Amino acid sequence: MSLAPVLRAAVIENDENDAMTTVLGIDIGGTGIKGAPADTRSGQLLADRHRILTPHPATPDAVTDVVAQLAKFFDWTGPTGATFPAVVKDGVARTAANVDPAWIGTDAAAKFSKAIGGEVTVVNDADAAGVAEMTFGAGKGRRGLVIMITLGTGIGSALFMDGVLVPNTELGHLKMGEHDAEHLAAESVREKHGLSWKDWSKRVVEYLMMVEALFTPDLFVIGGGVSKKADKFFPHLGEVQTEVVPAQLLNEAGIVGAALAHIQRTGVPHTD
Ligand code: BGC
Questions:
Q1: Quick one: what percent of the chain has pLDDT higher than 70?
Q2: Which of 103, 221, 222, 243 has the fewest CB atoms lying closer than 10 Å?
Q3: Would you tell me the crossing angle of helices 253-266 and 125-136 to the nearest 10 degrees?
């Protein structure tokens, strides 16, 4: 047997795999909506991220329009994963803490699928970022109870037991005194009230210690935009007993996690 046909077969197989495992990831946030095609086997983005400002008000129609623009930008009608900053069950948004209330009860997955012309999976933003970190980042290979906390406009959470996600945990809405934790300790609160890193960190510590007392996790992964500035506040987190590490995928976690969530839901295996 000559070598040439065998090599050719291998190449064809790779091409098919690429088609099955490349997914457009879209990360819907309060300020920007970002997207890029991602290779779900490596966690790498296959093109530079494209970002469009989140429309205001961020109604279902206005956001869907941006999702469609992003897909068009990448000339994409294929498999897509999207994050959404609220409880998402079977593609339907159930809450709207930081988004337009018209989202409650909206089938985001169906709406985006129709706009893009391809199948779309929609999951909670922190869950997506957590899945990306557990697969390629700070939580990779970590067993036991890992809790990812995202500090951004709000506080998001993703809880993993031996690598398996318990979705929609919403730990950002635990109460600290009379307030939602996210109204005291989110990154947006630090910015809005001009808190020093030290003063804001005290709130983050109080919050993490509360979550620690309730769940006794093995690891906290801290994500969200502020994870880029871990050097500013990690030195103040000493009182937390649990190991605390910054997220590693920074502003790509949502895109990569959304793409992975689509692969996981539709059942195409992740090969490392
Ligand atoms: C929402 C969560 C979201 C988090 C971070 C919270 O207000 O309830 O669903 O994950 O913000 O965006």
A1: 91
A2: 243
A3: 90
Answer yes or no: is the C-beta of 97 below 6 A from any ligand 1 atom.
Answer: yes
Residue 1 has pLDDT above 60, yes or no: no
Q: For residue 242, give both structure tokens.
A: 């649990």
Query: Three-class SS of residue 30?
Result: coil
Contacts of 255 (CB under 8 A, 6+ apart): 25, 26, 27, 34, 35, 36, 38, 45, 49
Q: What is the DSSP letter of 192?
A: H
* Closest-lying ligand 1 atom to the alpha carbon of residue 30: 12
pTM above 0.90?
yes
Domain with CATH 3.30.420.40 in the chain: 16-124, 138-248
Nearest ligand 1 atom, CA 126: 10
- Ligand 1 site, residue 167, Cβ cutoff 6 A: no
CATH of domain 16-124: 3.30.420.40
d(CA 269, CA 37): 18
Any atom of ligand 1 within 6 Å of the Cβ of 187: no
Q: Residue 187: enclosing H or E segment and its boundaries? A: helix 187-192
CB atoms within 10 A of CB 37: 20
Residue-wise pLDDT for 125-178, tens only, equals 999 999 999 999 999 999 999 999 999 999 999 999 999 999 999 999 999 999
